[in-house]
Design brief:
mainly alpha; two-stranded antiparallel ribbon; single chain; elongated
């Protein structure tokens, strides 16, 4: 997650249209919310059914709620990536990484409590379920 955070800041600097598509961010501004999930609509510049975390994207990009984040409106339409595909793919990537982190925390918690390797059947099933989520294989 640390490398992902670093990479996102680099994308914000070097490829602003890509960051805007990843986050389904259409309008340039400060105090920009972080959009989780949802269905982006390029025609209206809005995202339906999304969870929005106030100031989240501005905080992630510049560590301040006042950080200006460039939206897709600042780029010619022919330079926009496929916003729906990029946003959905990014959300899936973040979701799978979060799931793997949660399972890793579960393993550490069980080991800390018992001081032995976990053999809980639900934990072992979760570990097997995480195997296809790791894209480095």
């Amino acid at each position: 997650m640390v490398s992902g955070d670093f990479a996102a800041r680099e994308v914000a600097k070097l490829e602003p249209p890509k960051l805007a598509a990843m986050e389904a961010h259409y309008k340039t501004g400060t105090g920009v919310p972080l959009v989780v999930g949802g269905i982006p609509n390029d025609d209206t510049g809005k995202v339906s059914y999304a969870l929005q975390i106030p100031y989240g994207l501005s905080m992630l990009v510049g560590y301040s709620p006042q950080t200006k984040v460039v939206g897709l409106e600042n780029f010619p339409r022919d330079q926009w990536p496929n916003v729906r595909l990029v946003h959905a793919s990014f959300d899936i990537m973040v979701g799978t990484g979060s799931a793997m982190l949660a399972v890793a925390v579960w393993v550490v918690w069980i080991w800390w409590r018992t001081r032995r390797l976990p053999d809980n059947k639900w934990l072992l099933r979760a570990l097997v379920g995480c195997a296809p989520l790791d894209s480095s294989q």
